[in-house]
Amino acid sequence: MGDRLASMRLGAESLTVVLEVGGLDTLGRDKLEIAVRGALHGLGDLPPLRIAQMAERGETVAPKKPRIIAVGSGKGGVGKSTVSANIAVALARMGVKVGLVDADIYGPSQPRLMASEGERPTAKDKTLNPVPTRYGVPMLSMGHLAEPGQAIAWRGPMAGNALAQLIEADWGDVDTLVVDLPPGTGDVQLTMIQRFKPAGAVIVSTPQDLALMDATRAIGLFDKAGVPVIGMVENMAGYACPHCGEVSDPFGQGGAEAAAKTMGYDFLGRIPLTLNIRAASDAGQPPAAGDDDAGAPFVAIAGKVADWLKANADAEPVTA
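Above: the chain sequence. Below: its structure as tokens.
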């Protein structure tokens, strides 16, 4: 690693490391960067890390990849896919050039949420072209490649390769990918972190203790890999009876916000449990695409994610 270190500069707001990558292919460059990030992460409290790659004269370095915002939960059934879709739609409405990847290889749901069921991506030179959506968010999902209702029974390496195909598609001018991760901390999540270096992660949980325990495990995975946690979202937080208006808390109240405060992370907001959100999602109409009350919590959360992206521009990868 030492002979590849061209320079290192520690500033007030960032640590910049320049690597000499001449003669290395893309995989070799990725491995080198992962090794450097791992070594520096073990040194303790450092400012945000920015890695630049320098090739020999006459050699080209691949262009920038889209920065990745990973949306994880550690536990299924907390509404992570709904949050992912609506963050992507809201960011697009804010002018961000955003794409959406459904990385839940075994249980893809984004085609239903984004009204793109039945669509099939095209390909050129074995590279997929994302499926356009009516919401201005190009997307890819295993649901676009498999037959409807087909059970996908793949071992870890096959799922990891499938994820790579989705992320390494021809995203054009997209500069930010929202990646809806499957629940847990398994092979797909590890592939994401090791190969594609997310700029940051959003953690979704319901208020109940069991979901928060699993969310904490997901946070631990991102922490160990040096992926910044943008903040936590509390979903299904309170239910207002459509008949009497009384608000109840079937999953508890304030748990994710309290957990975020305890762990030192930002709390991005809470989303209520409402029939409007459920019905709109099932109909392929993300609430964030509209201007009514159902979409407001998603828009507010996406606004905080957008602010984080602006404040942490150095978190995006410099090269492939």
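Residues 67-312 form a domain with the Rossmann fold fold (CATH 3.40.50.300).
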